[in-house]
Write a structure and sequence with these properties.
It is a single chain. By secondary structure, the protein is α/β, with parallel strands linked by helices. Helix content is 36%, strand content 16%. The strands form 4 sheets. It has a 7-stranded parallel sheet, sandwiched between helices. α2 packs across α7 and α6 runs parallel beside α8. The structure holds nicotinamide-adenine-dinucleotide and uridine-5'-diphosphate (2 copies). Nicotinamide-adenine-dinucleotide binds next to α2, α4 and β5.
Length: 343
């Protein structure tokens, strides 16, 4: 299976990086920064399955080799340990730029590094895109809307972001990354795409990464209380990872720059989320209230009209459908491959 002749074409020299929708005849050479992470590794699965050659660039801050090791013998796959804050020379057709810690616990751990990753890292990848004529996709975030005063959030909303708070390294970092992306587009003609991703969950999330879905699932499996921060009435909208990956690929292959909200409009309070986790894992799972973190957005829900109209995309998997798929992956990782729960 892995010895098929390579059909990789370095297209950017003669196509200017343009890949017409539906006319993709050659396989592409694609960089996925952050490809050993949660979202990145699922994207790599789809690109490899489509026949493309994939170079994963990752410094393993939050990513894991285990997420991509099933490709180690595949000649269409390469893994480079590299920090995107340092320059990088590659010849590629497309760049999916995901490298950046996404969990608040991780991005607050070293905030200056988070800013450097968002700003210098994005600058380097845009410089690379400019040099080789590659198409560049930025994975921005719903956090650019801050603690939103408009609900649901539409792409035209400029947001309500604290520039000096503990989340600013991420929010403002991503806002600057969007600015850089648009400036390379306008100033240097780089073909760019911007996705604003809303809370996403699924298999391969770090078990203890501090995000709410992974926390609740791991806690319920371990028979620990689920930690609800604040009064639990704040809302988020949870998207299953395969829906996101489909959206990212449609955005990359389509003709529109964006920004596009990519998220599931199904909105839940944290207490409602805890209830869905109880239904899925253990009806007796307990809840424990903890003080909330600083600057926590009160509500978040995407308006996805633009993505529906221009990308023909909308999420297919509801929280109640997606959660069991994540739970079986977590069960295996929490308890080990061949053990039953609680053993
Ligand atoms: P993740 O932490 O699982 O993955 C991020 C990956 O980037 C990891 O593999 C990490 O090792 C790598 N990385 C971090 N800093 C790096 C650096 N300086 N150089 C090279 N690699 C580096 O997170 P994720 O959930 O997969 O998020 C992927 C992208 O999507 C991020 O850019 C994130 O901001 C964005 N996003 C995710 C969500 C979500 O809910 N998952 C929501 C909004 C935006
Ligand atoms: N860069 C890179 N790989 C490349 C081309 C550029 O990492 O293939 C980096 C480069 O080191 C620079 C950044 O991208 O720090 C921006 O590059 P650009 O050419 O736009 O700006 P300049 O180098 O002129 O400041
Ligand atoms: N949260 C929670 N318990 C946890 C982790 C998070 O109640 O164990 C809350 C958090 O306060 C926030 C929401 O869940 O209101 C989403 O947090 P997460 O860190 O997953 O993502 P965010 O959207 O804040 O980046």
């Amino acid at each position: 299976k892995y010895y098929e002749p390579l059909r990789v074409g370095f297209q950017s020299a003669n196509s200017g990086g343009k890949i017409p929708l539906g006319l993709k005849s050659k396989s592409l050479r694609i960089v996925v920064t952050g490809g050993a992470g949660f979202v990145g590794s699922h994207l790599v699965d789809r690109l490899i399955a489509r026949g493309d050659s994939v170079i994963v660039v990752d410094n393993f801050f939050t990513g894991r080799k285990e997420n991509v090791m099933h490709y180690f013998k595949n000649p269409r796959f390469e893994l480079i340990r590299h920090d995107v804050v340092e320059p990088l020379l590659l010849e590629v057709d497309q760049i999916y730029h995901l490298a950046c810690p996404a969990s608040p616990v991780h991005y607050k751990h070293n905030p200056v590094k988070t800013i450097k990753t968002n700003v210098v890292g994005t600058l380097n990848m845009l410089g690379l895109a400019k040099r080789v004529g590659a198409r560049f996709l930025l994975t921005s975030t719903s956090e650019v809307y801050g603690d939103p005063l408009q609900h649901p959030q539409v792409e035209t909303y400029w947001g309500n972001v604290n520039p000096i708070g503990v989340r600013s390294c991420y929010d403002e970092g991503k806002r600057t990354a969007e600015t850089l992306t648009m400036d390379y587009h306008r100033g240097a003609g780089v073909e760019v795409r911007i996705a604003r991703i809303f809370n996403t969950y699924g298999p391969r999330m770090c078990i203890d990464d501090g995000r709410v879905v992974s926390n609740f699932v791991a806690q319920a499996l371990r028979k620990e209380p689920m930690t609800v921060y604040g009064d639990g009435k704040q809302t988020r909208s949870f998207q299953f990872v395969s829906d996101l990956v489909e959206g990212l690929m449609r955005l990359m292959e389509g003709e529109h720059v964006g920004p596009f909200n990519l998220g599931n409009p199904g909105e839940f309070t944290m207490l409602e989320l805890a209830q869905v986790v109880q239904e899925t894992i253990d009806p007796n799972a307990r809840i424990e209230f903890r003080p909330n973190t600083e600057d926590d957005p009160h509500k978040r829900k995407p308006d996805i009209t633009k993505a529906k109209d221009l990308l023909g995309w909308e999420p297919k998997i509801s929280l109640r459908q997606g959660l069991p798929m994540m739970v079986s992956d977590f069960r295996q990782r929490v308890f080990g491959d061949h053990k039953e729960e609680g053993t």
